[in-house]
Specification:
Elements: H1 10-27, H2 34-43, E1 46-49, H3 55-63, E2 70-74, H4 77-85, E3 89-92, H5 95-101, E4 108-118, H6 121-132, E5 136-147, H7 155-167, H8 176-193, H9 202-217, E6 220-226, E7 231-239, H10 250-261, H11 273-294
Parallel strand pairs: 1-2, 1-4, 2-3, 4-5
Antiparallel strand pairs: 5-7, 6-7
Helix pairs in contact: 1-3, 5-6, 6-10, 7-8, 8-9
Bound molecules: S-adenosylmethionine.
S-adenosylmethionine is lined by residues 7, 16, 49, 51-53, 55-56, 73-76, 79, 94-96, 114-116, 122.
Length: 295
Amino acid sequence: MVGLAEYTSRPKETWRGWQWNRIAERLAGDSKAPSAQRRACSRATALYLCGPEDIDRQVALGKGFRTENLVAVDLDEASILRVREGGGIGVCARLEELLVTWPADWPIDVVVADTCTGFSASAIGLFAALVASPGVSDRTVVSVNLQRGRDKDTTEWREKIGGGLGAIGEELPKHRGHEWLMGCNCLMAAISANRLPRGISRNDVMAARVHGLLERQEPVTQTYRNSKRSVRMDSVVFRFGLANSPECNGLEAANALRQAFAYEGMVPKPYSDTRIARCRRRLAALRAVRTRRAG
Ligand SMILES: C[S@@+](CC[C@H](N)C(=O)[O-])C[C@H]1O[C@@H](n2cnc3c(N)ncnc32)[C@H](O)[C@@H]1O
């Protein structure tokens, strides 16, 4: 468990401001004008990992987000109860499960995954969930914060993806946020290249796909040191960039993608039916509370 002081450390506070500024700019179509950013934020729905202190909410409200559109998410029930006591709305669920069960008629504009974990298998699963989420579109702004180190379980995955990127003249970056994005982009490119007819160069198609994605995503990165433990945190903010097709939506698609994203030795379990059913119930309850408040 990360100590509370680490959520309020100066480097983290500075980073948090940087993150929401980058999000606001992207929502406003890269506009630096505060009024355009406030307008865009006031209409946007954001899902964010709240943690025990829910500090992000104040920063987001300051940028113009509305309470009813700021959905706190955490596996920790006590954190969600605290959000509700403070007047906010939230769901106790795994972010990936929430994304794949999210309704298509409630577009998600922002996903903030300040996980405070390393580049683990669940970070790879998060990308698969974003691809398969009915609420996520190519315009959704995503922010991911990953700890450098503590990621032995994905060393083999990263080495393999590094080889794939090498074949198209790209390197796997050391920055964990950038590495996560490049690695997952490379996998998405490989999945589409696998469907090619004979005679077309797989590498050419992959290179075009990865570069095209990066152009749309316009990722920006930041690194800060968590002062107490001197842990390095690598974060990336980008537009998702991947157009969501109906055949790649929802639970089945998410399970298939998790398999496609895996490698020998890292076999992801399919989402549990019980957990997904619970997530759907909680999401329905969240919507009911939100509607009641609006009325
Ligand atoms: C670093 S804290 C968030 C801190 C918050 N962003 C802030 O700036 O104060 C991360 C929180 O996310 C939760 N968490 C981590 N991974 C999660 C996941 N995949 N789904 C849901 N909750 C998750 C943890 O329980 C923890 O409370």
